[in-house]
Amino acid sequence: MSTYRFSAPLWQYPGEGSWYFVAVPEEISDDIADLTAGRRKGFGSVRVSVTVGASTWQTSLFPSKSGSYLLPVKKPVRVAESLTEGTPVETRLDLVDF
């Protein structure tokens, strides 16, 4: 399993809903794209296991128009880890099924 560690700010998607994301840094996104070429799921998503603080969960990364991947951060994680918009999120990301 490939593991990545990074810190990036939490941001809210503009528009309806309360979707919050962390953008995976470009260098890591490029590496993930290379490793998962031909094996991605629907919409180009990549299954991952994520750890932020004491919270660990499974989700999918989604490609953005800029070419980097976006990591959705659910409300229970934001509450448990006291994350607000703009907060740097120390993230451990493990690729699943690769």
UniProtKB/TrEMBL annotation:
InterPro entries, alphabetized: AF2212/PG0164-like_sf, DUF1905
Which is one Pfam family of this protein? DUF1905
The identity of this protein, by name, is Uncharacterized protein DUF1905
List the source organism: Kribbella rubisoli
